[in-house]
């Protein structure tokens, strides 16, 4: 087992699209809790000026970076660009993936990173003992529950929360995945990434999280994103090899 302290060598990657109202408070919260780590905002040329808000914050937080995309918008494309930058940067050994809207509590990042000593991927899970969802309307709960049931049944994966976007992972686990073969771009990207991490033998730990409704701003859920999520598990089933290894997945 690797006894490395990942809290000092992890970078937080935060995708944003119109998160101007959340990004300053999230940045402050993250750097107050973890003053010696880094964070990169992956902005998709948000019309509300999120990127400029990040540039203003960079004066206060020298370890805050911005990757601004200007071409076709995409949640997955933003993460892939961020991953490629981090993979090429020797300062970092781990990545924290999280949303900008406070649905993912920055206070638990430290405990999640602790688990990277023994596991390669720590999946922030709402659907295990100790995990829960707060303030979500019933139809969002239903959609999320159904999406997880659907994905887990088709792909036969051992994880209880395949759609969570709160994930910590070691860089060496990411290095084993061929990022050029990722098909999806909406939130299905998260499912595809986890499936490919499982396929390449990564050891997973499911960490219970409390997920809360976004603080400010609006949702970016679209019908295109939903259709992509419906097709993705079938594509993965038919176009890639099945899971080879049994992986660890524990809730405590
Ligand atoms: N770079 C980039 N980020 C995006 C895009 N779509 C969403 N995001 C960000 O991805 C994270 C998750 O998106 P959300 O809109 O919060 O999705 P959600 O949590 O399912 O929905 P709500 O919280 O209900 O709005 C947020 O930080 C968004 O700003 C995109 O196309 N590009
Ligand atoms: Mg959200």
What does this structure look like?
The chain has a single domain (6-239), classed as Spore Coat Polysaccharide Biosynthesis Protein SpsA, Chain A (Alpha-Beta Complex). The protein has helices at 20-33, 50-58, 75-87, 109-114, 138-155, 171-175, 188-199, 223-239, and strands at residues 10-16, 38-43, 64-68, 94-97, 121-125, 132-134, 167-170, 204-208, 210-212. Helices cover 37% and strands 17% of the residues. The model has no long low-confidence stretch (mean pLDDT 91). Strands 3-2-1-4-7-5-8 form a 7-stranded mixed beta sheet, sandwiched between helices. A two-stranded parallel sheet has the order 6-9. Bound molecules: guanosine-5'-triphosphate and magnesium ion (MG). The site of guanosine-5'-triphosphate (GTP) has 20 residues, from strand 1, strand 2 and helix 3. Guanosine-5'-triphosphate is lined by residues 15-17, 19, 42-44, 73-75, 78, 99-101, 103, 165, 214, 219-221.
How is this fold's topology laid out?
Layout: E1 10-16, H1 20-33, E2 38-43, H2 50-58, E3 64-68, H3 75-87, E4 94-97, H4 109-114, E5 121-125, E6 132-134, H5 138-155, E7 167-170, H6 171-175, H7 188-199, E8 204-208, E9 210-212, H8 223-239
Parallel strand pairs: 1-2, 1-4, 2-3, 5-8, 6-9
Antiparallel strand pairs: 4-7, 5-7
Helix pairs in contact: 1-2, 5-8, 7-8
Bound molecules: guanosine-5'-triphosphate and magnesium ion.
């Amino acid at each position: 087992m690797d006894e490395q302290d990942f809290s000092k060598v992890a970078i937080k990657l935060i995708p944003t699209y119109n998160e101007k109202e959340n990004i300053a408070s999230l940045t402050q919260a993250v750097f107050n809790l973890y003053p010696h780590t880094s964070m990169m905002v992956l902005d998709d040329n948000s019309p509300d000026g999120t990127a400029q808000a990040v540039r203003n914050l960079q004066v206060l937080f020298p370890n805050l970076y911005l990757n601004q995309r200007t071409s076709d918008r995409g949640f997955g494309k933003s993460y892939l660009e961020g991953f490629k930058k981090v993979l090429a940067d020797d300062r970092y050994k781990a990545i924290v993936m999280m949303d900008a809207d406070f649905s993912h509590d920055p206070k638990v990042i430290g405990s999640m990173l602790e688990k990277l000593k023994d596991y390669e991927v720590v999946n922030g899970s709402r659907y295990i003992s100790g995990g829960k969802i707060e303030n979500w309307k019933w139809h969002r709960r239903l959609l999320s529950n159904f999406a997880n049931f659907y994905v887990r049944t088709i792909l036969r994966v051992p994880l209880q929360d395949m759609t969570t976007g709160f994930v910590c992972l070691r860089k060496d686990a990411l290095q084993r995945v061929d990022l050029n073969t990722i098909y999806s771009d909406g939130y299905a990207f998260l499912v595809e990434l986890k499936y490919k991490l499982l396929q390449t033998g990564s050891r997973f730990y499911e960490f219970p999280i409390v997920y809360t409704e976004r603080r400010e701003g609006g949702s970016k859920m679209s019908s295109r994103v939903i259709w992509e999520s419906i097709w993705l598990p079938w594509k993965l089933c038919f176009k890639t090899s099945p899971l080879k290894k049994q992986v660890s997945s524990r809730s405590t």
